[in-house]
Specification:
Blueprint lengths: L7 E2 L5 E2 L8 H16 L4 E10 L5 E14 L6 H4 L7 E11 L8 H17 L6 E6 L2 H9 L3 E6 L2 E7 H8 L2
Parallel strand pairs: 2-4, 5-6
Antiparallel strand pairs: 1-3, 3-4, 4-5, 6-8, 7-8
Helix pairs in contact: 3-5
The structure holds coenzyme A.
Amino acid sequence: MSWGKEFVELNKSKHDRSSFDCGEQELNVFLKTQAAIHMQAGISRTMVLPSTQPLLNQKHAICAFYSVTPSSISRETLPVHLAKKLPRYPVPVFLLAQLAVHKEFHGSGLGKISLIRALKYLWDVNHYMRAYAIIVDCLTDQAQSFYAKYGFEALCEHNGRIRMFLPMKTVEQIFSR
Ligand SMILES: CC(C)(COP(=O)(O)OP(=O)(O)OC[C@H]1O[C@@H](n2cnc3c(N)ncnc32)[C@H](O)[C@@H]1OP(=O)(O)O)[C@@H](O)C(=O)NCCC(=O)NCCS
């Protein structure tokens, strides 16, 4: 199996959700049972990277996916030096709610590619609707190390998970070079 060039919006009739396995049951179940429903409800968008060749059922396997949604954080959760420059309102952010790679491709650079594509997607959205930062809620310590590698910093604990953030100004530095 090899991965295609572009992430596209999840389409149940074209993409085979049942064969996806990233090794984390929660993320597998989200893709299989919730992602499409959440999109239909208008609360998040899931982008998938299909395989180049279709499976026997004519659908394309999902090599990686990410889900994004607008969100907000309390100003008080930010480091003081950042918070003091912001008004006393909830701070708009983009939540990178899910990101996972099929386990067949772990360690081959697709996690990095998927994260960069997700950041670029949100950077493009930011041209139309501004957000202060991108946040992620880490499922595991390994996920936290993965995001830390790319500049995400721990923000607070949220529902038993470590919430990390990457300021949009940092994202701007990546894509405005
Ligand atoms: C985390 C995940 C997306 C990484 O994907 P991947 O394709 O294996 O990662 P890559 O091969 O692109 O690795 C990119 C870099 O991250 C590092 N990395 C990969 N997995 C890591 C992990 N679990 N912990 C720490 N660092 C990790 C690699 O060493 C590599 O660094 P290098 O460029 O210096 O060599 C993948 O393991 C996955 O889908 N895990 C299950 C779902 C999950 O935990 N998602 C996190 C969101 S909650």
